[in-house]
Amino acid sequence: MQPSQGDLDFFVTNGYVSVLQKEQYDQALAELSNLSKMSEELRDETMEEGTAEATLAKEERRIHSILFHLEGKEKKEAEMQSAEAERGIVSREKAEIAEKDSRINELLKKKSMLDRMVPYDGQYLSLTGLGVMTLSDLNVRNYRVSETEFSDFIQERQATYTELRSIADKGNFYTSALKIDFPNADLSQLWSVSIGLGKLQGDPNQINQRFLLSLGMVQHFKSNLENKMMAAEIMTASKTNPSQAPTNSDLQNLAETLQSLEKRVRHDAHVPKELSVGVAATVLFAKRYDGTYPIDNLVEFSKRTPSCEAAAILSIMTLPEEQVGFKFEQFKSLFSSWGCEESEDTELASAYLTISDLAPDEVKDKMTIILDALKNYLEYPLVATAILTSIPTLEANETLDLMEKASTMLGTFTSNLERSELISLSVRMIHGIKNELVKELDPTAKITQTPVQFTYVPSTVFFMYHTPLIIAHSSYHSTFSALGGAHPAHVHGVGGFMG
């Protein structure tokens, strides 16, 4: 099937396709015919320039030596003139080499373009860099956008990139600010908190101020820094009355409620003090419509799982405890059938999937694909896999593609994190996507506007607040927990359950 001339003009005008007439193509081939010879000449000239530099360095050392001052006037002048002449030679050779190197690079780019070109109707066509990237995105999304106008797809794609860049950009701002106050903190931990803050709507300076105020209010708790930061992040997101911005007048009440809840989670649910403020903050964020907090749920689920964080995650559900507990046990059984030993990770993964819209039978294939992919990056990928699988409106390949885009985006802001850390942070970055614009959870459903929403909307299943889903954050590599458990090369904070 050949594209119409109108379609071809559109792709060329918008930078997706390059076109050369046959005469231009032949001329470009002729220009490339001397590429090998030019490369050899460049190597020879580079060696000659190196020799000239060595000669100049020798003369420079000579005229700066003590013995030079003992020479006669005429000899000193001659040697200084010789050194000056050598400087000129070296300078000219460097300029010529730079010019030739630039020319060769241009020819190499042209060769790369010609190598991709194919003949078409008396012309030669090739995809540009933008075209290659767009085609890759189309291949991932084709089943969903096959009946969508190309312009709509481009708009949707651009909105996704814009959203990712916005979160990464604001995350970079918060990380830079936090490094001033916490110079010895783990960089990936600061980035994880910052990504959560980056999802919040509002003035970054005001959000940063609110976070630091919140963090100051939780310093007296005996919990570790990860849990204190988590609690402060949740307090920052828990602005129940937007009219209070930017006064933060609600923080004192939140802090008092948090302190009361922290005592209860320690006393009633027997949560260790190292973890208690994080669990209490999760309960705080899950405030019910009637104004109560799900401490009773936490107590009941603490009897079902030795993981404090898993119990906290499960406690946010407003469904009957037996119904939630049954689904939780189903996911645990699924992991057991896969040969996974009971551990903090199986508990957390089961909890995240339990609060999703998916049933165990619906996640097997998707989870297997994502798990196989994450094994290439993470030593312990189960929790990250569960989080990505829990996004109901994206297929496995779409989810992995979005994660890869987020990871690449984050990599442009920091070069001091390992690949595994970037992958973990990218999962944190896209966690909370709930596409309310898909009219039906159907692979052929038409998508309007952007396919992703980076915040949860008010829901009886999740929370009352229009804020990102913040339950736990990645504190190191493959971990998505600040609350409990630890095993080799895999930090979950302090205490908790180890399988």
Note down, in words, how this protein is organized.
With 499 residues, the chain is mainly alpha-helical. It folds into 2 domains: 24-126; 139-491, no CATH class. It is 62% helix and 3% strand. It contains 19 helices and 5 strands. The protein has helices spanning 5-13, 22-32, 35-63, 73-116, 129-145, 150-181, 187-198, 204-217, 225-237, 251-268, 273-285, 295-302, 308-315, 321-337, 344-354, 360-374, 382-389, 396-411, 419-430, and strands at 17-21, 118-120, 123-127, 486-487, 490-491. The chain has a 3-stranded antiparallel β-sheet with strand order 1-3-2. A two-stranded antiparallel sheet has the order 4-5. The longest helix is centred in the first third of the chain and has 44 residues, at 73-116. The chain is extended. The two termini are 57 Å apart. The model is unreliable at 433-499 (pLDDT under 50).
- Count of the separate structural domains: 2
Backbone structural class:
mainly alpha
Stretches with pLDDT under 50, minimum 5 residues? 433-499
Oligomer: single chain
Computed CA radius of gyration, to the nearest angstrom: 30 Å
Distance between the termini: 57 Å
For the biggest β-sheet, the strand order reads: 1-3-2
The helix fraction, in percent, is: 55-70%
Mean pLDDT: 79
Gross geometry: extended
Strand content: under 5%
Instruction: Spell the H/E element sequence.
Output: HEHHHEEHHHHHHHHHHHHHHHEE
Q: Tally the helices: what do you get?
A: 19
